[in-house]
Design a protein that fits this description.
This protein is an alpha/beta fold. It has a single domain, classed as Rossmann fold (3-Layer(aba) Sandwich). The protein is built from five helices and eight strands, in the order ββαβββαβαβαβα. Strand 7, helix 4 and strand 8 form a beta-alpha-beta unit. The longest helix has 19 residues. It starts with a strand and ends with a helix.
Length: 193
Amino acid sequence: MFINYEDRELNCKIVYCGPPLAGKSTNLKYVHERTSPETRGKLITLRNATGSTVFFDFLTVLEVRGYRVRLHLYTYRAPELDDPGRSLVLKGLDAVVFVADSQPHRMEENKSALGILQRDLEADGRPLDALLFLFQYNKRDLPKTLPIAELERALNLTGAPSFEAVASEGKGVFDTLKELSRRLVLRAGGRHA
């Protein structure tokens, strides 16, 4: 977390990660579309050889000891190929939302993306269990999805909070972000300002 004392802002970096096409960018686009233009930054997409990173920031209505909270949201794609840009996205992050695709044929990609995330964080000296971390099980509207209990057993080995979502319709998108924001504010209230 970064504190801007002059503007009385607490800045928090949240990274949405997961396998390709799981719904990370869809989450951010939905939040951006429904955030007041006066409080949000521009939605930016940076493309490279292995995919793209989407990001923007916005000022929330949350306050911690007189400081307004500004959230910086990023996507992080976990491909098998090494990409130096990915490590820049992970620098200074405060929280992670792992967006998993609920379809049975995507389970191995979910596991692989989670493993790559853990590897990259550990290489940066930040183990996953030291960060605020949530799961979002996306695409719950599709006809064949794994039961939540099975997704939990396969992916959520630490018992992190989890949410069901249909990001394309906005279902679960703000529930996930609100819970993560609440936890960030509680954490910030205990050690900042």
